[in-house]
Amino acid sequence: MKNNDVLAGYLSRGTLVAAHRGVAGGNIPFNTIAAFEAALLQGADIIETDVIKSIDGEVFIFHINQEINHLNRDIHLTQMTADEIRKVRYVNFDNNLTEYPIPTLDETLECLKDRCLINLDHCWEVCFKETIEGVRRHNMQDQVLIKTPSKIEHLKMVEELAPDFMYISLIKEEDKINGIIESMNINYVGAELVFTNEQSPVLQSEYIEMHKKKGRFLWANAIIYNYKTQLSAGHTDDIAVAGDMENGWGWLVDAGFDIIQTDWPMMLKNFLNERRCNK
């Protein structure tokens, strides 16, 4: 039941690049089909994206509670019908209206089929069952990575509805759940580690080696939502693109991370390729 051959093929390439909500810039907003196409053109191995559900049950691609930021409208998509959501358009970085709609999960899956790995984030919040059903409808279980916080209620949800999906546990600072996950019927393939400083327990070599020995990958988050909230102890996209790539992305690679999530996939991909060639 648990076939991770596609994932293994990707991991054999070396450190993988996960594009955070695709690539946005100019007139192209995050979490649109155009943003995903741009990310793939820039060499992304994984598209990270977000899902929500309309009031009548259809799954769309959008980051929950970000309507003001990305639509410049005081609305709540989760309280709208699918037909109403289809009429909504994103704004660009200057808050000017664009032609880009909010894509459905179905449209996104068909766009990305057989082209990359996909991380469907935030599905545990509002539409886990519908998201899993959607992926099964497209027969794309071998491409989709499901991630949840390390809470019992989320783990039970995964075990009940998606035991065959590739599962990533989101672990912050200290791991108190690993043994429980291992005892459950869950296809536990990797962990996203969040750490505010280099002394965090999840960053210590013994912990990282434990996962590696069990065949799991480790995911680091180089993006910055808010500079006051550190996800990777300051080894970030900002540090890298401002000129110190080794202290940003290189540090994460050397620490043992197999996947780096970024807002700058082309720069990260080029850095990884050059680094590999120089070794």
Q: Can you describe this structure?
A:
There is one protein chain. With 279 residues, the chain is an alpha/beta fold. The chain has a single domain (5-277), classed as Alpha-Beta Barrel (TIM Barrel), CATH 3.20.20.190. It contains 13 helices and eleven strands. The protein has helices at 5-11, 33-41, 67-71, 82-86, 105-112, 123-126, 128-137, 152-161, 178-182, 205-213, 237-241, 245-255, 265-277, and strands at 16-20, 46-53, 59-61, 89-91, 97-101, 117-121, 144-149, 166-172, 187-194, 217-221, 259-262. The strands form two sheets. It has an eight-stranded parallel β-barrel, surrounded by seven helices. It has a two-stranded antiparallel sheet with strand order 4-5. A hairpin with a 5-residue loop joins β4 and β5. The model has no long low-confidence stretch (mean pLDDT 96).
Terminal CA distance? 38 Å
**Helicity level, as a percent range?**
25-40%
Query: What can be said about the biggest beta sheet?
Result: 8 strands, parallel, barrel
CATH topology value: TIM Barrel
Number of strands: 11
CATH superfamily: Phosphatidylinositol (PI) phosphodiesterase
CATH architecture: Alpha-Beta Barrel
Radius of gyration: 18 Å
- Which CATH class is shown? Alpha Beta
Report strand %: 15-25%
Q: How many helices?
A: 13
Order of helices and strands: HEHEEHHEEHEHHEHEHEHEHHEH
Shape: globular
Note poorly predicted spans: none
Number of spatially distinct domains: 1
**Strands side by side in the biggest sheet:** 1-2-6-7-8-9-10-11
Mean pLDDT comes to 96
